Amino acid sequence: TQLRIAQAKILLAQGKAPVEVAAEIGFVDQSHLNRQFKRIVGVTPGQYRQNRNNVQDLLKAFPLK
Predict the structure, then answer these.
(1) Which of 31, 32, 61, 37 is nearest to 49 (CA)?
(2) Host H or E run for residue 24
């Protein structure tokens, strides 16, 4: 499960939807991914994906020098 969640984080960071990620990494459905992901990471896959996008948007707006 830990390895699948690590792979899910990579796929979510690439912009894939949680439903696609669940199917690709072998979870029965998106709700199973959601439960396991939240148990291990502390947020849902959708929240993780959104937070990653927010950070990337900020870095584009305010690049580090």
Answers:
(1) 37
(2) helix 18-25
Report the alpha-carbon distance of residue 65 to residue 63 in Å, rounded.
6
Residue 29 pLDDT class (50, 70, 90 cuts): very high
Structure tokens at 16: 């894939």
Q: Is the predicted pLDDT of residue 56 greater than 90, yes or no?
A: no
Placement of tokens 């499960």 in the chain? 1
How far is the CA of 50 from the CAs of 5, 55, 65, in angstroms?
16, 9, 25
- Structure-token pair, residue 32: 């199973």
For the beta carbon of residue 39, count every other beta carbon within 10 angstroms. Answer: 10
DSSP secondary structure of 28-57: SSHHHHHHHHHHHHSS-HHHHHHHHHHHHH
